[in-house]
Design brief:
Length: 322
Amino acid sequence: MKFRTEITPARWRESIGYDDTILSLGSCFANNIAAKLAERKFRVVASPTGILFNPASIALAIERMAELKAPCEEELIEVGGRWLSYDFHSDFSATTKAEAIATMQKAIEVGNKALTTANYTIITLGTAWVYRLKSSGEVVANCHKQPHQNFSRELLSVADVVEMLERIIKATQSHIIFTVSPVRHIGEGAEDNSLSKSILRVAIADVCRRYSERTVYFPSYEIMLDDLRDYRFYANDLVHPTQMAVDYIADKFFEVALSNQVKEFMPKVLQIVKAASHRPSNPASEEHKLFCRKQLDAIASMPEINFEEEKRYFEQMLQINL
C-alpha cells in the first residue's frame, strides 16, 4: 500500500561531473542546491549578485555579468545612509557611491567568470510577479523596503517569461537546468502564488521543448508539492522547506544529474569533508597522526576533486605534531 506519490524524475542525457563548473542563481533555493553541491566539493558559484526571484531580474543579472556592466552612479539610491541598487541585494550596499559601485563591480566580475566557464547553469525561478519602479518603468530585483507607492505590481505573462528565459539562454553557452522554487510566495496570496508558479512552469516547458539540446527541467516545486505533501516538511513560517525537505530534493537532483561514477565518489568525498571538521581530543596522539595520514592518502587517490582546504588542514595537523 502506498501512502504518498513519490516523484522520480527521468535521468538526463548529460551528467554533471567533478570536472564541470556550475553557476546557480535565482531564488533562495538556488543557494540551497549550490550549498549541497559545494559540500560535495563540486566547483559551484552561487548567486553572485544576490538572491533574485523573478525571471526579468535574473535575465538582467546574467546580461550584466556577460557584458561586465556594473551600475552607474545614477542607478544608485540612498537608504539609511547606505547606497544601493534596485538590481542588487542589500548585501552589496555601502556608505559611499564609489564603494557601492566597486562592490557591485566585483560581484559582476565573479559572475562573469562563472558564467563564461560554467558547463551547467542552474536557474531557479521564484515568482512571475514583478514590481516596477514607477519613475522609470524598470523591474526591480529588490524594493529595499521603499514606499510601496513607488512601485506598480504586475504579473508577467507566459510570453513575457519565455522571452526572458530566451535572453538567459542566449547569454550563456552552458547547459541550463531550469527549476521552479519550492518556496511558496504566500505574501502574494495563495491564489496569486499558484497562478504565478503555473506561468513559470508553462514558460519553462515551452523553452525546454524548443531548446531541448541545451535545457532541462528539474521538478523541485512538484516534489515539494506532491511528494512531500505534508506541513511537517515546511519550516515554522509554513513557506520555506525544512532542511529535511531540502536534503530530500537535493538527493532527487543528484539521482538524475550525476553519473553513476560520480555518485560512487560522493560518500568518500563527504567522509573526507566530515573528517576535516572533526576536532580531536588529543591532536598529538599517534592515533590522530595515523588518522590524518589516512585522509591524505584518500585525498591523493581522488586527484580530480579539489580537496585543497582539507589537504591543508591535515598537513597542518601533522606539522603541529612534529
